[in-house]
Amino acid sequence: METINLGKENSVFNHFIREIRDVNIQKDALRFRRNIERIGEVFAYEISKKMSYQAQEITTPLGTSNENLMLEKPVLATILRAGLPLHQGLLNYFDSSDNCFISAFRKHKKGGNFQIKIEYISSPNLEEKTVILCDPMLASGSSMVLAMEALLSKGNPKHIHVIAVIASTEGIQYLKENSPVRNWTLWIGAEDQEMTSQSYIVPGLGDAGDLAFGEKS
Asked: Would you say residue 57 lies in a domain?
């Protein structure tokens, strides 16, 4: 398992991270969603470098050209609802890919505790496919592990690229120790050290789903 932190490099990517974190900017839901989408596009570009390529001859109006093209299309998977803008960013680049959607929710218990539950999965066959699984926040890591387990019910992927815009150190470690698959790569935009008792990342950015789509009752 490899962890790739794009935020460690100096690029325009850091400006997108800054805007989704900034309490005065993130209140604009349209801008928040678009920034998450742009972050997804950057992840897509970087992940595309890891795919297999083969030269193909292309006919132009004036002759022919050999271009290196991807041999396969990754399946794009996301955890609803917060992952939708990030998923759209990936789809903007992998625009002919099949898609997978996983519904996860917090089942709250007395005393403020909760348990993550997977409600359903809508997915193509994943046998020997490359899968890109995204969720804006990797907090405790439990929902991502459950999502990966849900993917396995649709076949054994060749490789899974896991994307989290912001991840907690604890969540990264949990994922490393509990991942149900062997061949996977973790892509993050930032790593934060702290997490609250309610599994919110500190400094984080708040609730990505609420910021993107409005508060839920």
From this structure: no
